[in-house]
Amino acid sequence: MPSNIVHAFRPTPPHTYNSYAKSKEDLGAALAVLEKYLADGSKRYLVGDQMTLADISIASALVYPFKLVCDPKYLKPYGNVVRWFTDCVGQEEFKAVIGDVVMCKKEIAAKR
Question: Which of 1, 5, 11, 80 is within CB 3.0–4.6 Å of 38 for a Cys-Cys bond?
């Protein structure tokens, strides 16, 4: 996952609208790859049917974007990713560390 994706969506000060838009575009490209990978339905998690460090790492990187930026309209093409993500963050062990993850309902966009 490109590092600028995570940094542009951090809840810290200001990013230009252009960097925000580019990060959102890059995130969409990464989510499309993940969507395609999960689409065949043969695995619950990234590496089979048990959560691994791969799932923890990627899901953790997506927490802020999914809480603050990725509203339902943006996530519509990525149904398998959303299913996988909510499954990951819904695990009791995950909740014990990061708490409940409330998905974004309305994007908190960078100012133009």
Answer: 80
**Ordered domains of the chain (ranges, CATH):** 3-98 (1.20.1050.10)
pLDDT digit string, tens, across residues 94-105: 999 999 999 999
Buried b (16+ CB within 10 A) or exposed e, 9-34: beeeeebeeeebebbbebbbebbeeb
Distance between CA 112 and CA 105 in Å, rounded? 21
The candidate with the shortest Cα–Cα distance to 76, out of 35, 108, 46, is 35
From CA 74, how far away is CA 28, in angstroms rounded?
Answer: 8
- Residue 98: CA count within 13 A, CB half-sphere: 17
Q: Return the ∠ at Cα 35 (arms to 68 and 37), rounded to 5°.
A: 140
